[in-house]
Amino acid sequence: MSVRLLETILLMTLVTYGSRVLPFLLFKGKNVQGFARDFIELVPIALLAALVIPDLMIQGDTIAIIHNPFLWAGVLTFLFARLVPNLFLGIIFGMSVFWGLDKFLK
Amino acid sequence: MNQRVSREVKKGFAFGLRQSLTIAIGYAPVAVTFGILATQFGLTFWEAGLMSFLVYAGAAQFIAIAMLHQGATVGMVGLTTLILNSRHLLMSMSVVPNFPNRTLPWSLGLAQGLTDETFVLNTRVLKDVDGESNRRRVMLGINLGAFVSWFVFTILGGVIGKWLPVQFSGFQFALLALFIILTISSLSKKNLMTYLLAALLAIVFKLLIPGKVYLLLSVTLAAGIGAWWRRRELPLQNEQQKGQMPKL
């Protein structure tokens, strides 16, 4: 195994386990409130937007709409996931649609 | 300390393990997909397995292998993982009051298995279990069942990916599909504005700034503005709900 991969895994373990265990070690049962709580609550949804939307819309270094299989596969997967709330089926659907569009649009 | 055992059925480790079955079944296809993708991105099946064993965080693992494949630095992957997984702080804080007399080994052990899915199940199940020591065992069972499934099915996926090297362009889209499904299940009226703001900021920053910095910038800004907006919008309800909320 490469050193880079091992370092990555250990660093990921540290930050992930850290955020799981800290409250167990430090908290007596009080919850965070106010701005901090809202902020932590909103981080995951903001991250999902930042991870998904640019990858769907930007190809190379410009916004691509028409000949962009990522965008259309993304739109269809959004619609599918709304109708069928199943993780496994959603992933299969997304991959298949992308595969089809990738062939069709190129 | 209340060590009384519930009179009806004793709820302990085995009970927790049975409860974990739904999660274990749900994890299986995702873990298999992760294992296959990891081998496609150049990891061996045991490296994928090690990552599932130690990190044990679905979305972060998918991002990590994709980022590593694209040549991201260790620090960048670590930072992205931190942003993504800081949400465990909240879940952990919300579970902790179930265990006021926990010992250090129990703290270290129970924290290991906390994921979005086990958190939801534990929250639902633990409130009907009497006695802290029983609650500990139930949570251990729930956590362990889910964890073992994630680990074993990652290995299985890795082996499948190794022995059947599938050429399928759809794998490029697996991670985005996963995120889109997660988005649909967590998007609500309360966070839609933050989502749209983050999307807009991320596009702009990605076009302007090279590298992955756009992730941190857009997430921090959007969540910050979103949280500030909520405080502004609902000061009355919040104070009524929470009693003595500290002044901001």
TrEMBL record, chain A:
The chain crosses the membrane at residues 6-27, 39-58, 70-101. The lineage of its organism: Bacteria, Bacillati, Bacillota, Clostridia, Eubacteriales. Pfam families: AzlD. It comes from the Bacteria. InterPro entries: Brnchd-chn_aa_trnsp_AzlD. Keywords: Membrane, Transmembrane, Transmembrane helix. This is Putative membrane protein. It comes from Candidatus Desulfosporosinus infrequens. The keyword Transmembrane helix applies.
From TrEMBL, chain B:
This is AzlC family protein. PANTHER family: INNER MEMBRANE PROTEIN YGAZ. Belongs to the AzlC family. It is a multi-pass membrane protein. InterPro entries: Brnchd-chn_aa_trnsp_permease. One of its GO terms (cellular component) is plasma membrane. The chain crosses the membrane at residues 21-41, 53-84, 140-160, 166-185, 192-208. It comes from the Bacteria. It is found in: Cell membrane. GO terms for biological process: L-valine transmembrane transport. Keywords: Cell membrane, Membrane, Transmembrane, Transmembrane helix, Transport.
